[in-house]
Amino acid sequence: MALEDLKSALPAYAKDLKLNLGSVIGNSQLPQQQLWGTVLACAIAARSGIVLRALEPEARENLSPEAYEAAKSAAAVMAMNNVFYRTRHLLSDPEYGTLRAGLRMNIIGNPGVEKADFELWSLAVSALNACGQCLDSHEQVLRKAGVGRETVQEAFKIAAVVQAVGTTLEAEAQLRAEAV
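and the corresponding structure tokens:
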């Protein structure tokens, strides 16, 4: 299923999502690698097989093999980090913040692509996973690297739309399955 098929699969009540999906992917000002790395990382993080199967082939086509693997790596490491750091932040005992994390995350230091691209993908996944501490950390790295707020916002707009499309299509699939 390609992007157009994905848009066509959205029900009438989700017309805004259809328009936004076309806009955030089709009219993005991001360079191809940043765009498709963000799309792929968010499609993985959204946990929607429908969305992932639809967007992965186009992401693979638009990314170098290194960028393709790095985007998947961003989704993987952020799946772990977002839970860990969000939980540590939400606990009322601040002493957890002083403990060593003890989690391997070497990919962040050597992602195989431009550091800013990997940070952007990590930020988008962190937005999807609602980790404020990770969002702040990645946004600060991006801003120090000279990445503008518009680019940062573009990444979390993609995250928001991909998540919403996945939620909607998975719900529709479940409703159709229950009706049978």
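(Above: one complete record from the training split.) The chain has one domain: 19-100+111-179.
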